[in-house]
Amino acid sequence: MKKVFVSERIPRFVEEYLRNHCDVERWEEKGEIPRDLLLEKLKDKDGLLMFGESIDEELLQVAPKLQAVSTVSVGYDSFDIEVMRKHGIIGLHTPYVLDDTVADLVVGLMLSVARRIAELDAYVKAGKWNKAVGKDLFGIDMHHKTVGIIGMGRIGEVIAKRVKYGFDMNVLYYNRSRNKEAEEKYGAAYCSLEELLTQSDYVVLMTPLTDETYHLIGTEQFRLMKDSAVFINASRGQTVDEAALIAALQNGEIYGAGIDTFTQEPVEKDNPLLQLKNVVTVPHIGSATLQTRQEMAMVAAKNLVEALSGGNPPYIVKE
Ligand code: DGY
């Protein structure tokens, strides 16, 4: 039987499935496995099921038998693809299964920022609701406005569907290539990044983190946005220059932001974003529903078993 190490928490039924096919060792403690221990564990392993660990030269040097690494995520920015290719390691991820769940969160963040839901929840719970609210507490509309989606992949498309048909929004998008389906089904209009930033009432960043998208949105891009714009990041923290985001929010260059992903995760307790009323923060929960995370873990496990048995895993990272 192939030997597999599992560093991510997975449901019992997924573990059982893995144990039926492989010899499984699991990280049982709370929190992330320390790096040196992970390297130690991988010395005799053929496969790794993980989330977030850097798969790089250092790790692959000490794991001579490793054949496949399966992440319980659609994003695989922790994979050093070139190094993995050099070592002949198969990289696997979990697309599709989380698209609806992530899109739901994005729409939730848009609404929450626009209608100040988190801020006004705190206001009510603090006992400050003594009279009917005045315009200092009014929000802004989402319906019939323009949303610009940066990164029109599978999740971008589902967001487009929700906002087009649920909120009658006008959809713009910027992507490395045209997405005809999004254009035909959701009337999404392809445009340059500059056009998207200047015309959108809501700017949603959904692009994967790559060398090209690192700090894609920074000072210059925030300046191009409307001062009434809502900015949402549910991709990866590093796609945004966080200092520029903080400055844009503090200087009133944009209306507010909904942030699922941060430069450092877990976010530092003194990060200025946490002090701003016009920012809604959540702890990288794009795909974090019970059902979706269970399904993702199963997809990751099946991917790994298939790869280790020389079969055709459905979701190989292709680059
Ligand atoms: C992913 O799958 O990459 C998500 O960011 C995890 O929530």
Automatic annotation (TrEMBL):
Family stated for the protein in its record: Belongs to the D-isomer specific 2-hydroxyacid dehydrogenase family.
InterPro entries per record: D-isomer_2-hydroxyacid_DH, D-isomer_2_OHA_DH_cat_dom, D-isomer_DH_CS1, D-isomer_DH_NAD-bd, NAD(P)-bd_dom_sf
Keyword vocabulary terms for this entry: Oxidoreductase
Record SUPFAM superfamilies: Formate/glycerate dehydrogenase catalytic domain-like, NAD(P)-binding Rossmann-fold domains
Annotated Gene Ontology cellular component terms: cytosol
Domain D-isomer specific 2-hydroxyacid dehydrogenase NAD-binding: 107-286
Residue intervals of the D-isomer specific 2-hydroxyacid dehydrogenase catalytic domain: 5-317
Molecular function per GO: glyoxylate reductase (NADPH) activity; hydroxypyruvate reductase [NAD(P)H] activity; NAD binding
The protein's name in its UniProt record: Bifunctional glyoxylate/hydroxypyruvate reductase B
Pfam families, per database record: 2-Hacid_dh, 2-Hacid_dh_C
Keyword Oxidoreductase: yes
